[in-house]
Amino acid sequence: MKPLLYKTTKPFLIYVLIILIISVPVYFLVIDSIWKNELDEHNKTIAQKTAYEFNHLKLSDRELKKSILLWKKIQPETSIREIAADPLKKDIYSTVEKPKLFSPEYEIERYRTLTTVVYINGKPYLFTVETNIEESEETIAAISAITLFFFLMIVSGLLFLNKRLSETVWKPFRNTLEKLKNFNLNAHHAIQFENTEIIEFEELHQSLEKLIDHNISVYITQKEFTENASHELQTPLAILKNKLDLLLQNKNLTDEQYQMVEEMNKVLNRSSRINKNLILLAKIDNNQFNNQEKIQIAHLLKQCTEQMEDHFQQKNITLYSHIHSGISISGNKSLTEVLINNLLINAIRHTPLDGSICIKLTDISMEITNSGTEALNSDLLFKRFSRLSAENKGSGLGLAIIKEICKFQNWAVNYRYENNQHTFTIDF
After folding, report:
1. Which reaction is the catalytic activity of this chain (predicted)?
2. How far apart are CA 334 and CA 408, in angstroms?
3. Do 214 and 190 contact (CB within 8 A), yes or no?
């Protein structure tokens, strides 16, 4: 993940870089065009001045020819040639490339050429003048260097300004974010946001205040419901169970009546377990537990396995333990105990007779593996009231509770089936 400043600055810098790169050839073409226009004016001025000077001397035809020959020797880039009539309708401007005559090394140069007709002593002369154009490579290099310099200035200035603005403009947002991180729904206290002069932040604060007030109200309602449900449902269920236990002790019951009462007792026990599990899920959803306790997970895991020893013996299950002692994690102890018990019960239910269960505990994970005959349905694995097999006599909430506990404590639960082995892994 990257900060918002990077997200907004990067596209802008890329855009500026593209524009500056495009500007280099544009600069060159514009400057080159300006140079050519200036050289055209320069050449036109030379032609007009040359004709003016020759006319001002008032030379004879013979002296004029000698002067023109001398002019050509002195000005090798200039040509004056007598013509019979004016063949040009307008001046001709062109750019030519030719080797540099007076350079020891072979070098191609560009020249701006003007071909025009001037009148000397009343006669037309074809006047051609060439003027060297500055080196294009040097021009491009200079423009590129200047462009790069200004790009670096823009980048450094933009980063500096964005950093300073980010510290001031985004300060209210960071304060709001920090308060949201520290917000505890169990405290029932709304957040008091500081006033800002930024409209967007004020709208955000107003929306958050409404949302938090609504969540607190819903949380209180749900908490009251779970507390009432826990009390109102558990009490009549306990009374019914007590009555059924007394009825089962009645010696006057026929076998058929005894069987009916026994079935009713099993259904009542299952209903009681479902009620407790649903209330537990509701409490987890409402964040009614503290998940910042220090838990001696190794000790807790050993206690849970000892409590399940009778279940292991009933199915003749061999237990293998690889538990590193002294491991402590952060979480809720009671929820972690429920998680371990549910994992062990699930492993026992899906382990055949004379099977095996292996428990591994490290600093970063807990792994429970049991032998099995076929993989569990991954699509239904953590769904509530899902039956993973026909032999499953549970409430259908055990794995769902495991999933919710892991989610509440920021852990991850994963399942895999390899080599006839079911494996559940909890990553802390």
Report:
1. ATP + protein L-histidine = ADP + protein N-phospho-L-histidine
2. 13
3. no
**CA distance to 186, 335, 337, 364, 407, per residue, from 287 (Å):** 7, 12, 17, 24, 11
> Which amino acid would we find at residue 16?
V
Which tokens belong to 368? 């429970």
pLDDT band at 102 (very low <50, low <70, confident <90, very high): low
**Residues making up the chain, counted from first to last:** 428
Distance CA 404, CA 397 (A): 10
Average pLDDT over residues 288-299: 86
What is the structure's pLDDT at 64?
85
> Can you spell out the DSSP letters for 28-47?
HHHHHHHHHHHHHHHHHHHH
SS3 of residue 174 by DSSP: helix
What are the CB-based long-range contacts (under 8 Å, 24+) for 355-358?
Answer: 355/315, 355/317, 355/318, 356/317, 356/318, 356/319, 356/320, 357/312, 357/317, 357/318, 357/319, 357/320, 358/319, 358/320, 358/321, 358/322
The pLDDT value recorded for residue 347 is 92
Angstrom distances, CA of residue 91 to CA of 35, 87, 97: 18, 11, 20
Using DSSP's 3-state secondary structure scheme, residue 390 falls into coil
Q: What is the CATH number of domain 4-152?
A: 3.30.450
Query: How many other C-beta atoms are found inside a 10 Å radius of the C-beta of residue 147?
Result: 17
What residue type is 356 in one-letter code? S
**DSSP secondary structure of 199-225:** HHHHHHHHHHHHHHHHHHHHHHHHHHH
Give the pairing of strands 365-371 and 356-361: antiparallel
Q: How far apart are CA 345 and CA 311, in angstroms?
A: 9
- Phi, psi dihedrals of residue 175, rounded to the nearest 5°: -65, -40
CATH number corresponding to 293-427: 3.30.565.10
Return the structure tokens found at 303: 């206690």
Q: Lowest-confidence range among 40-49, 130-139, 406-415?
A: 130-139
Q: For residue 5, is pLDDT > 70?
A: no
Q: What is the pLDDT of residue 79?
A: 86
pLDDT at 29 exceeding the cut of 60: yes
Q: Name, in order, each residue with C-beta under 8 angstroms of 335's C-beta and a sequence gap of 6 or more.
A: 284, 289, 291, 405, 408, 409
Q: Kindly provide the b/e burial profile for residues 307-337, where b requires at least 16 CB atoms within 10 angstroms of the residue's own CB.
A: ebeeebeeeebeeeeebeeebebebbbebbb
Q: How is the chain split into domains, by residue range?
A: 4-152, 199-285, 293-427
In the chain, DSSP finds a helix count (H) and a strand count (E) of 10, 11
